[in-house]
Amino acid sequence: MTTAAFWILAVLAVAGGVMVFRFDSMARATFSLLTALLCVGGELIVLGLEYLGIVTVLMMTIEMAIMAVFMIMFMMNPAGLMPMTMVHNKRGAAALCVTAFVLLVAGILLAPWPRRRGRAPADPTTDLGMALMGPQMLTMMTLGMALFATIVATVVLATRRGRYERYGDDLRATRPDDPVRGGVGR
Amino acid sequence: MNLEVFLIVAAALFCVGLFGALTQQSIVMLMMGLELMLGGVILAAGAAWHYIAPATADGQVLVVVAITAMAVEMAIGFAVVTALFRSREVDMTDMAAELRE
């Protein structure tokens, strides 16, 4: 059962990944990527990591929904009504990727992997929670800071007009440079 | 099933993503390639947890780190696309190349 699930998910994941770059339509490419990443979440569940698998599935679903919105905002051909290829250096990249894959597979097959040590706890999720709140606290704090920095950076990058546009680079302007004057006499 | 098979699937996902990230000109498609690469990393970390050291949670923590990296990449990527598009109406990597000089 798990073997069948593994192979179905593996084939779907890789096929979805390949189709992302073959579909003409951006929307289809997004959903193909969603398929691939959902299958990765499914593989995690096959491995016994139910919590992380479900987290992956939920996160990818929302992420791809957001991605579809951005696609339609920015891309010229969201519906795929005409054939579309926007690629550069296809041959070199293909050679590089095949080489990388061959090297990785050779390494995977030749490496002396350590033998399985210990057995999985009855509830890996509790284990993860205890690790993140205990010995791996530094990792958790770093992730938290990184996510906070991401929030700030995202807002800064996406802001159309900030205080530097309004008050000049040294923030010394007496009057803000607004396209429309404010209504309170400033 | 064993560790090698899982890692080979992860390597396949990683290399397909690498191909996309290297070839695609549209920044959003390039980010999709990065997402696929990180998907491969997630799978490899999960397999390493299950087949090498299931008694400790380090492999699971690695999966959490990779998922967070995915979220950060996505958010910053879209913010950069928005900023680029706003300043020069550009959504392709080749058109945003003037910093190269």
Automatic annotation (TrEMBL), chain A:
InterPro entries registered for this protein in UniProt: NADH_UbQ/plastoQ_OxRdtase_su6 (IPR001457), Nuo/plastoQ_OxRdtase_6_NuoJ (IPR042106)
Reactions catalysed: a quinone + NADH + 5 H(+)(in) = a quinol + NAD(+) + 4 H(+)(out)
Alphabetized UniProt keyword annotations: Cell membrane, Membrane, NAD, Quinone, Transmembrane, Transmembrane helix, Ubiquinone
Keyword Transmembrane in annotation: yes
Domain of life: Bacteria
Membrane topology type: Multi-pass membrane protein
Location(s) in or outside the cell: Cell membrane
Entry-linked Pfam families: Oxidored_q3
EC number annotated for this UniProt entry: 7.1.1.-
GO molecular function: NADH dehydrogenase (ubiquinone) activity; quinone binding
Lyase in keyword set: no
Listed transmembrane segments: 6-23, 30-49, 55-81, 93-113, 133-158
Gene Ontology CC, one term: plasma membrane
Role this protein plays: NDH-1 shuttles electrons from NADH, via FMN and iron-sulfur (Fe-S) centers, to quinones in the respiratory chain. Couples the redox reaction to proton translocation (for every two electrons transferred, four hydrogen ions are translocated across the cytoplasmic membrane), and thus conserves the redox energy in a proton gradient.
Protein family according to the UniProt entry: Belongs to the complex I subunit 6 family.
Protein name, UniProt field: NADH-quinone oxidoreductase subunit J
Species, as recorded: Streptomyces nymphaeiformis
Automatic annotation (TrEMBL), chain B:
InterPro entries to which the protein is assigned, alphabetical: NADH_UbQ_OxRdtase_chain4L/K (IPR001133), NUOK/Mnh_C1-like (IPR039428)
UniProt membrane topology term: Multi-pass membrane protein
Reactions accelerated catalytically: a quinone + NADH + 5 H(+)(in) = a quinol + NAD(+) + 4 H(+)(out)
Any one Gene Ontology molecular-function term assigned to this protein's record: quinone binding
A cellular-component GO term for this protein: plasma membrane
Major place of residence: membrane
Function: NDH-1 shuttles electrons from NADH, via FMN and iron-sulfur (Fe-S) centers, to quinones in the respiratory chain. The immediate electron acceptor for the enzyme in this species is believed to be a menaquinone. Couples the redox reaction to proton translocation (for every two electrons transferred, four hydrogen ions are translocated across the cytoplasmic membrane), and thus conserves the redox energy in a proton gradient.
Subunit structure comment from the entry: NDH-1 is composed of 14 different subunits. Subunits NuoA, H, J, K, L, M, N constitute the membrane sector of the complex.
Protein name, entry field: NADH-quinone oxidoreductase subunit K
Phylogenetic placement of the source organism: Bacteria, Bacillati, Actinomycetota, Actinomycetes, Kitasatosporales
Gene name, Swiss-Prot/TrEMBL: nuoK
